[in-house]
Amino acid sequence: MLPFETLLGARDAIASKKASSVELTKIVLDRIAKLDPAYRAYVSTFPDRALGVAGEVDAGKRVGPLAGVPIAIKDNLCTTFGATTCSSKMLQNFYAPYNATVVEKLEAAGAVIVGKTNLDEFAMGSSTENSALMVSRNPWDTRTIPGGSSGGSASAVAGMLAYASLGSDTGGSIRQPASLCGLVGLKPTYGRVSRYGLVAFASSLDQIGPITFDCADAALLMNVISGHDARDSTSAAMDVPDHLADLEKPMKGLRIGIAREFDLDEGMDAEVKASIDRAIEVYKSAGATIVDVSLPHTKYGIAAYYVIAPCEASSNLARYDGVHYGHRTAEPVRDIIELFSKSRYEGFGDEVKRRIMIGTYALSSGYYDAYYNRALKVRTLISRDFEQAFEKCDAVLSPTSPTAAFRPGDKADPLAMYLCDVFTVTCNIAGIAGVSIPCGFTTPEPGSDEKPLPIGLQLLGPNFSEPKLLQIARIHERVTDYHTRRSGA
Ligand code: GLN
Predict the structure, then answer these.
(1) 276, 383: one domain
(2) Regarding beta strands 112-117 and 433-441, do their DSSP bridges make them parallel or antiparallel, or are they unpaired?
(3) Same structural domain, 357 and 449
(4) Within this chain, do residues 363 and 435 fall inside the same structural domain, yes or no?
(5) Is 149 annotated in the active site?
(6) Same domain, 418 and 289
(7) How far away, in angstroms, is 125 Cα from ligand 1 center?
(8) For residue 169, which atom of ligand 1 is closest to its CA?
(9) Integer CA distances (angstroms), 49 to 46, 53, 81, 283, in order
(10) Is there a domain that residue 241 lies in?
(11) In 3D, which of 15, 10, 137 has the Cα closest to residue 70?
């Protein structure tokens, strides 16, 4: 086990000199050496650099709200130390010339970045099976996947190989792995956190956010990473509130919305449904009013997402041609076109190629209106659904994922994998805030060799409602103990 239950606990222990950062960093590095061969959370680690930073904290040369705490970041965040691979052959040897804004902010806050974590190639997927490097494992049962695309970031925290991590979420990639690994995962409002230095997948949907043991840790990280950044033209020029300030404050008149469109008959685990029903009871007992809301265009969410995201991806990934960026073929070529196509053929994996083809097709003349423009119209309707729902409630509650963690190969059909995102994509489409928190475990059949696996619930809130969303999530956390359970070792 890690000393100290949470990021905040470790931070306070270091600040009050009850623990040293070097000591904690060594413990985390030892755990990585021992356990990561099974979890496969990390693509790269920086032991010497991390111990150097930790030493500076202990010597009082580095201070800040995260001073001395070992943290992991997803390997699609640019760093001047180590490679930035996006778990793709295309970028296996890419060394970024600058740090992402969030990396700068973490380090300015004194965090010790121990390593970079595995993801589905270019963040496209829901299990890390699309990583060109390896499949990460869920520490609750290493026969299962940790979710994706920020699977390595979730695996690292659930396996206690870091006190917290950063992921990115384009259609659910922070919330779904957090849910499958029994953690808190927050997708901030679009524009809340700078995307500068995040390798772009679908620029109008991407956001960076925390994966943590509990809501207070998520609030602490949000305080550090949020804020306007002149280098990201889509970042919001708004002050950053203290996400910890109201976390423990009681809430009067809380209204939790339940959308009937999220009540799926098909493809949803009975145990997930039961856990959500229990969570609704928790909120009722806490004095919340449960209101029915309608999000009528939710049913087009997956279809719209899987047009918009591939369209933007096909454009964003055009730069990887072996000349501007990325892997270059060693095969003989006749001309530049063949150099591009061979390099891209060799550098990208199947799922990335599938998305580039779908996106290129949907954007091509003659099809643009039929697909891309239509998807954008659905986008407007989905945003409007949420605006109307938030007139009636403070947050919409749903499952995060229709099932608990599954095994590699279980969703070999791409469409089956896409359906993992039914509850998460509308949040990105509308640009609003969303959080996943632990709310239960599966119960294995007696006598089976299955292990109990975490289940998560999702709370969606209006733009820039992160402090309130965490405050609402914290109500559930206060009366349940799911977030205090650890995967073992
Ligand atoms: N699973 C979704 C996809 O494959 C979401 C990925 C993400 O949020 N990065 O696109």
Answers:
(1) yes
(2) unpaired
(3) no
(4) no
(5) yes
(6) yes
(7) 5
(8) 8
(9) 5, 6, 9, 45
(10) no
(11) 10
Is 74 an active-site residue?
yes
Q: Which of 74, 116, 342, 411 is the catalytic position?
A: 74
Q: Domain check: are 295 and 308 in the same one?
A: no
Q: Which tokens is 225 given?
A: 């990473």
pLDDT at site 488:
81
In the block, which residue shows the tokens 């040293």? Answer: 20
The number of domains in the chain is 3
C-alpha to C-alpha distance for 222 and 163, rounded to whole angstroms: 15
The pTM for the full model equals: 0.98
Per the annotation, the verdict on 173 as an active-site residue is: yes
Q: Which candidate, 239, 243, 249, places its Cα nearest to that of 466?
A: 243
Is residue 181 within 8 A of residue 146, CB to CB? The reply is: yes
Q: Which residues are paired to 210 by β-bridges? A: 166
Closest atom, ligand 1, to C-alpha of 172: 8
Please write the tens of the pLDDT for every residue from 173-203: 999 999 999 999 999 999 999 999 999 999 9
Mean pLDDT of the chain: 97
- Domain extent, residue 476, equals 255-299+375-483
Same domain, 279 and 202: no
CATH of residue 401: 3.90.1300.10
Residue 259 sits in the same domain as residue 219: no
SS3 assignment for 62-131: CCCCCCCCEEEEECCECCCCCCCCCCCHHHCCCCCCCCCHHHHHHHHCCCEEEEEECCCHHHCCCCCCCC
The per-residue b/e assignment along 23-52, b for 16 or more CB within 10 angstroms, e otherwise, is ebbbbbbebbeebbeebbbbbbbbbebbbe
